[in-house]
């Protein structure tokens, strides 16, 4: 029977440094002269092989976003934002095109509830040998209330059928070429979560998907996950989506 699970190597996992909660931990990404297995560099942006490959049957890489340990996607200059997202998408799709992997994940953790361990801004690109993430990526999870869109260009929505539940922001663009508004909408979603969200949060995830000729980014604020989703896989849809969509449009697009 085909497996549907990723296997986590705990003997490697216990060796990983943790600097999100442990502020005394030296940041491994700040010691740039000591980094090894570097794949590509673009100024302050570095892609390298993950030193702690905890996932079995996978090829794991880390994308260090900046040389500023306290930087964040929400506050990058437009120049650095576009440079970073273009770099990430380029190497993500390049890994896909090798044909070595069943599918390739591209994602970002930020904050103590995001599932990450290093505070320094980074993303991960992971090639999976035996699993295809697209099997569970249904079109309806990217549908929602439109908050901004360009003619024949990127589209920014708030999910009405969220994947996990409650509030999920979606950005989509055609995969034929990079469009700047895609990254700018992504930055708006992250900035709104960290600065204007109605519930205090310091954690979020960004997940990228390449499906049917489109590139999607799903941005999720992270809280303690609802037990109804953990126990039964039941996503919940909040009653104030229309209010939130209007509030975000008022702040960023009015």
Automatic annotation (TrEMBL):
InterPro entries linked to this entry: DUF4931, DUF4931_C, GalT_short, HIT-like_sf
Domain of life: Bacteria
Pfam families, sorted: DUF4931_C (PF20956), DUF4931_N (PF16285)
Every DUF4931 domain range: 8-130, 139-253
The protein, known as: DUF4931 domain-containing protein
């Amino acid at each position: 029977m085909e497996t549907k699970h990723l296997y986590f190597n705990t003997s490697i996992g216990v060796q990983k440094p943790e600097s999100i909660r442990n502020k005394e931990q030296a940041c491994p990404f700040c010691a740039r002269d000591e980094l090894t297995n570097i794949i590509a560099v673009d100024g302050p942006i570095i892609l390298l092989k993950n030193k702690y490959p905890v996932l079995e049957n996978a090829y794991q890489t880390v994308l260090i976003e900046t040389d500023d340990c306290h930087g964040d996607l929400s506050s990058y200059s437009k120049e650095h934002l576009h440079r970073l997202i273009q770099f990430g998408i380029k190497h993500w799709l390049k890994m896909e095109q090798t044909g070595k992997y069943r599918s390739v994940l591209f994602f970002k953790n930020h904050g103590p509830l995001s599932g990450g361990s290093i505070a320094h801004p980074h993303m991960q690109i992971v090639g999976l040998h035996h699993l295809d993430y697209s099997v569970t990526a249904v079109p309806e999870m990217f549908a929602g209330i439109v908050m901004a869109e360009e003619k024949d260009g990127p589209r920014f929505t708030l999910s009405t059928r969220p994947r996990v539940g409650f509030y999920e922001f979606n950005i989509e663009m055609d995969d034929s070429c990079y469009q700047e508004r895609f990254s700018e909408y992504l930055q708006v979603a992250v900035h709104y979560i960290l600065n204007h969200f109605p519930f205090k949060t310091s954690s979020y995830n960004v997940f990228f998907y390449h499906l049917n000729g489109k590139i999607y980014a799903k941005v999720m604020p992270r809280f303690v996950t609802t037990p109804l989703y953990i126990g039964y896989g039941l996503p919940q849809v909040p009653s104030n989506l229309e209010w939130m969509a209007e509030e975000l449009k008022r702040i960023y697009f009015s």
